[in-house]
Amino acid sequence: xxxxxxxxxxxxxxxxxxxxxxxxxxxxxxxxxxxxxxxxxxxxxxxxxxxxxxxxxxxxxxxxxxxxxxxxxxxxxxxxxxxxxxxxxxxxxxxxxxxxxxxxxxxxxxxxxxxxxxxxxxxxxxxxxxxxxxxxxxxxxxxxxxxxxxxxxxxxxxxxxxxxxxxxxxxxxxxxxxxxxxxxxxxxxxxxxxxxxxxxxxxxxxxxxxxxxxxxxxxxxxxxxxxxxxxxxxxxxxxxxxxxxxxxxxxxxxxxxxxxxxxxxxxxxxxxxxxxxxxxxxxxxxxxxxxxxxxxxxxxxxxx
Amino acid sequence: xxxxxxxxxxxxxxxxxxxxxxxxxxxxxxxxxxxxxxxxxxxxxxxxxxxxxxxxxxxxxxxxxxxxxxxxxxxxxxxxxxxxxxxxxxxxxxxxxxxxxxxxxxxxxxxxxxxxxxxxxxxxxxxxxxxxxxxxxxxxxxxxxxxxxxxxxxxxxxxxxxxxxxxxxxxxxxxxxxxxxxxxxxxxxxxxxxxxxxxxxxxxxxxxxxxxxxxxxxxxxxxxxxxxxxxxxxxxxxxxxxxxxxxxxxxxxxxxxxxxxxxxxxxxxxxxxxxxxxxxxxxxxxxxxxxxxxxxxxxxxx
Lengths: 304, 302
Hints:
The complex is a heterodimer.
Chain A: H1 2-27, E1 32-38, H2 39-49, E2 53-59, H3 72-80, E3 83-86, H4 95-102, E4 107-110, H5 139-156, H6 161-187, E5 195-198, H7 204-210, E6 213-215, H8 228-241, E7 245-247, H9 254-264, E8 267-268, H10 287-303
Parallel strand pairs in A: 1-2, 1-3, 3-4, 5-6, 5-7, 7-8
Helix pairs in contact in A: 2-5, 3-4, 5-6, 6-10, 8-9
Chain B: H1 2-8, H2 14-25, H3 27-52, H4 56-77, H5 81-105, H6 110-131, H7 136-143, H8 151-180, H9 182-188, H10 192-230, H11 237-262, H12 266-284, H13 290-294, H14 296-301
C-alpha cells in the first residue's frame, strides 16, 4: 500500500514537473530540426535555413570529423532530426553506421553532390579515399553545397520555400563577393611565391581553384602519424623550392610543424582553419569568416 | 683508406650512407636520436629492476596513471611541456605512493591496488581530455612525437636520465637487496620503504619523459622490452643494466632508420625494433634462450 502511494505521488510529481514544459514547447513556432555532421556544414545550413530551422552539429568547432567517435547524445539528436546533412565523399566515415543504429527516419542529404571534385593524392596511408572530401575549400563548391541544402530544406518543408530561396540567394551573393576578394588577394601575391606547407592535406581544392600550391607532411587523412621519411621529404622540399611559409591548422600537431619551421627557417604563418570552424567569437566563426581569415593569413605570409 | 674515400667523395658506401645520411642531413633526426638515447639510458636500468622485482606490469599501470595529470596540464595550458610534465609527475607520484602505501599497510597486494588506482586515473584522464570538447589532440597526447623534440623536451629527457642514473647508483645496494631478499633487508635496515618509494618516483619520472617522446603507451615499451631481452644474455644485474641500455639505444636507432627509410611511424617503429630484439633474445639468448634449452649440451661445453 505504502509503495503504491509513493509511486503515485512520484508520478504526480513528475507530471507536475512535465506539465509546464509541454505547453511551452507547443507554443514556440515549430522549427524544422536538422543535423549537420560538422561545423562548416552546420554554418551553411544555418544561413540557408534562417529562422525556420534548428541546426545541430555533431562535430563541433575545432573538432576533427575524420577521427570523431559519436556519443549516445548524437544518436538521440539524429533520431529527432528530419534531415541529416553530410559532406559525403567518405569524409564522415562513421555517419552511416550512426544513422542506422539511431533508427532515425531522417533523410540523408549529401551536400557535396554535384560539386567539382578532385582525385585524392596517391597515398599509401589513405585506403579507399579515392576522392578528396574537402570540397568546401573551393568557394564555387560551397555554392553547390548551398544549392543542395536549399533543395533538401524545400523538399522537407515546402511551406518555407520562399524563405529558403531568399536566404540562399542572399548568401550566394555573399559567397560571390568573397570569391572575388580571394581572387584579388591571390593576384597580389607574386606567382613564384605561391607555395605553402601546411600540416593537413585539406587545401587542395583551395589551391586548385585559386592557384596556390599546398604541400603537406601528412597524407590526406589526419589518422596517419607522419613518419620520419615524410618529415624529411618536406624539409628537403622546403629547402629545394625555398618555400617561405609553414601553416599550422587547427586540427594537427603543432609541435611537428614548429620543428620543420625551425629546421628550414621558413616562417610559421598564423593558424588557418580547414576542417572545422573556430569558436563562434573566434577568427573563423563562420564559413565566410574562415575563408577570409585563411586567405588573409596566406597573403600576409607570402606577399612579403 | 675506405674511410678517406668516403670522406672525400660526396657518395659514401651505400650501407653506411643509409645509416648515416638521415642523421647528418636532418636536425630533427639527430634530436630524435639524442632523445631516444636519453630514454634508453634511464629506462633500461629502471626496467631491469622492475623486472627483477616482478613489477613489469607496474610500469604499464603507472604509464596510464600519468594520463590524468598530463591531461589537467593540457587542459590548463594546452600543449605545454612544463604543465604536462608537472601534471604527469604529480599524478604518477600520487598513484604510486597511494598504491605502495596501501600494499605496505593493508592486506591488499600491490598489483591489485595499482590496478585499482590506474584504472581510476585512466578513466579520469580520458574524461578530462574529452572535456576540452575537441577529441583530436588526445591521439597526439597518447602517441607523442619523437620527431618533434624541441630544446626544452630534450633537456627534460637528459636531466631525467642523469638523475635516474645518479639515484640508482646511490640506491643500488638496498634496491638489489629488495629484489633478492626483501625480508632480510627489512631485518637489517629501515631503508626498505623509502627505497621503494624513491624507486617508484624514478619509474614515474622516466615514464613522463618517455611520454613526451613516445606517448604513454609506448613509453613503457622502451623500459620493459630492453630489460626483458637483456635477461636472456646475462644473470648479473650490472651487466643486465648495461645490456638493456645498449639494446634500448640500438632499437632506438634501428626504429628511427626504419621510420626514415620505410615510412613507418617513428614511435611504433622503435618499440617494434625493441620487440624484435626481445624475440631474438628469447630464441638464441645464452641464459635460458629457447635454442640453448633445446640443446643443453652445447651450453655446458661453452
